[in-house]
Design brief:
80 residues; mainly alpha; 76% helix
Length: 80
């Protein structure tokens, strides 16, 4: 699923799949900050798997990277 498609749908499953895509590099190279953002958004929509994946990724990120991911998630929510 593309980012544009998920932005139109926004279901927990769609957002979770984006998190997976970014965490393993299906979109190019892995981007854990971006993956954390999508897992956070999916978790807010009730995805238990996203909560677990977000926690796992957070353990690999610095506090600054987590802050960037959270800020990006808030910005996404504000525009969707």
């Amino acid at each position: 699923m593309s980012v544009a498609a998920a932005e139109m749908v926004g279901s927990a499953d769609d957002l979770f799949r984006l998190g997976i895509n970014f965490s393993v590099g299906r979109t190019g190279r892995a981007d854990l900050v971006e993956a954390h953002k999508w897992f956070n958004l999916a978790a807010q929509r009730g995805s238990r798997s996203a909560i677990l994946h977000r926690e796992e990724i957070a353990s690999e990120l610095s506090a600054g990277e987590i802050a960037r991911a959270l800020r990006a998630a808030r910005e996404w929510i504000a525009t969707h």
